[in-house]
Amino acid sequence: MASSAPNLAIFRDYAMKPDPTSSLPPSILLSHSDTCLTVFDAFPKSIFHLLVIPRIKPPFSARHLADLRSLLQCKKDVAKELLMNLNEEANNVKIMIEEEMMKRYKFKWDIWMGFHPISSMEHLHLHVLSADLCSPKMKLKKHFNSFHPNLGFFLHLKDVLSWFDADPSFYRRMAKLDRSQYELLLKDGDLCCWTCDRALGSMPKLKAHLQDEFDKLTKREKATLERKRKRMEAPSSPMRAPVTDDEHPEKTARVAPSEGADSGVAVVGTSADCNE
Amino acid sequence: MASSAPNLAIFRDYAMKPDPTSSLPPSILLSHSDTCLTVFDAFPKSIFHLLVIPRIKPPFSARHLADLRSLLQCKKDVAKELLMNLNEEANNVKIMIEEEMMKRYKFKWDIWMGFHPISSMEHLHLHVLSADLCSPKMKLKKHFNSFHPNLGFFLHLKDVLSWFDADPSFYRRMAKLDRSQYELLLKDGDLCCWTCDRALGSMPKLKAHLQDEFDKLTKREKATLERKRKRMEAPSSPMRAPVTDDEHPEKTARVAPSEGADSGVAVVGTSADCNE
DNA sequence: TATTCCGATAGTGAC
DNA sequence: GTCACTATCGGAATGAG
């Protein structure tokens, strides 16, 4: 039961497990590598929402991996390597999510990867979530603001990685991750849609709008699909033959959350693991 | 239906009526005199809660009677006479309430008479209410604080009258009734029981406590009644004969709110008017 | 920035 | 300090061998 779990150190527990697969059920664990493991977010804020967690291995102790700030206080090259490991795992997760998008929705949409600069959960975790923010677990203003892709709280992985190649003074400034600065961002009352930037004024209105945006996206993609299908039925285009959307037919995705449900745990398929 | 009446000037409407009895139903109007009328508070904050309203008659215009402050800006002797008229009517109302207390509860308890220094309702009204503050309509902190007999917001009529006989500078100071001063009193967070002065911390706890206090009072009075009954059965006391509690058996009270109900309108009996 | 529960707080609309 | 409705904000408890 992953219902009301006030275990704020549970990710650290996961990160310490020598053999994640044998100690974590598939309803929690999606996959793992030598350096990371990926779990379903128990309270997904998008249709797809997973967490990539660095395993506690030398040269890192639990303390180094407490959060993003503590990681960025480590030696830069070591920190960057860990982020690259997370990035690699996240890219695999992204592919799995996209496969499941195709299965369930017949189209793909964006996937975000990023960190929260401050967190109640006691171990670093990289959010990998679909770009919709539609979920019954999306309840509070701070929920929404913490995943808004352009508000500044959600730190995109590629941006964090870019800090390493920027001016050292810039790196140091960003690596500070001053708590109070970021706290203010969450209290922004505008509740602006991340897609169209309109202010919605309240969470219920925002949620309805986000659903509208996703429905519009779905409609657009369905129309695109329909045009493709027609081209396939009457292949008059001499330019190229129609292709399938599924770019990875050999992989069997199991990144399947319970769509619209409120169980708190992602529902998974029955197929086998597909990590590297 | 006196259900959801957002008419903030309704008391002024009442106060202007030439013939209250013919234009106001007995579910609203309890009684009237030449100078006042008494209505049931549509949202009683105690078991008994009525409002004595000055009628608009020379030398007063509606403006003079807008609230207590505007009244106290009138000539002192005229203002005092109006208050004395309210006082007389309120004393009659008090007697009627006490009769109904005896009928329903077999004992009497205190009755408060007083003003709110600031009000959203646009016409002066004297609150006459039983000293219990037990009512389903007692919902908010400001409700409770505005009737707390020792907090300073509820201005007891006898205190207001005493200002007239005090030093003129004192009168002028009190007559100012500075809005912001009194607003603060309503936000007092302590929620102290008006009987035992204990802080209750939240409205639900306060309401439960107020009910407890009233239940204890009821129990005490029932015990007193029982002792009296026993003395009557065995009249061994040579000092004096037992007497009835009802000091006004000739009057038929109709000051009967719906006990514990949440209709918003006081339920009345079927007997006739009993004003002077 | 864990959730959930409870309650206080704030803004609105009522006609 | 009119009410009632909606939503937000704010603290506290939560888990457990």
- How many strand units of chain A? 6
Q: How would you describe the oligomerization state of the chains in this entry?
A: homodimer
Q: What Rg of chain A is obtained from the alpha carbons, in whole angstroms? A: 20 Å
- Describe the sheet with the most strands of chain A: 6 strands, antiparallel
**Nearest-integer average pLDDT of chain A:** 88
Protein name (chains A, B): Aprataxin C2HE/C2H2/C2HC zinc finger domain-containing protein
GO molecular function (chains A, B): DNA 5'-adenosine monophosphate hydrolase activity; double-stranded RNA binding; mismatched DNA binding; single-strand break-containing DNA binding; single-stranded DNA binding
Keywords (chains A, B): Coiled coil
Describe the model.
Two copies of one chain form a homodimer. By secondary structure, chain A is of the alpha+beta class. Chain A is built from nine helices and six strands, in the order ααβββααββαβαααα. The C terminus of chain A is likely disordered. In chain A, 30% of the residues are buried. The radius of gyration of chain A is 20 Å and the shape is globular. The chains hardly touch. Chain A binds a DNA duplex (15 and 17 nucleotides) through helix 5 and helix 8. Chains A, B: This is Aprataxin C2HE/C2H2/C2HC zinc finger domain-containing protein. Chains A, B: InterPro entries: HIT-like_sf (IPR036265), Znf-C2HE (IPR032566).
